[in-house]
Amino acid sequence: xxxxxxxxxxxxxxxxxxxxxxxxxxxxxxxxxxxxxxxxxxxxxxxxxxxxxxxxxxxxxxxxxxxxxxxxxxxxxxxxxxxxxxxxxxxxxxxxx
Length: 97
Description:
Elements: E1 3-12, H1 17-25, E2 36-39, E3 45-53, H2 60-73, E4 78-87
Antiparallel strand pairs: 1-3, 1-4, 2-3
């Protein structure tokens, strides 16, 4: 399966107690289709990691939109500060001989 890995850095805007608990429950450093959060101690700044399946004609724009849709599914108010897309099709693995 070919995928994109998208990393979104941002900050929450007006996160309530229920939202804070939901972010803490979705914490992790792995790239998943639903996305995971790492955050600062006050749960104000975050990094959202998402893995987006890549179709044969998909590019970085489609991957970014897919990741933003996954972030939107969490339903927390946020502001995006930075977004980075890695096309895993471009990653070369060096095998040991």
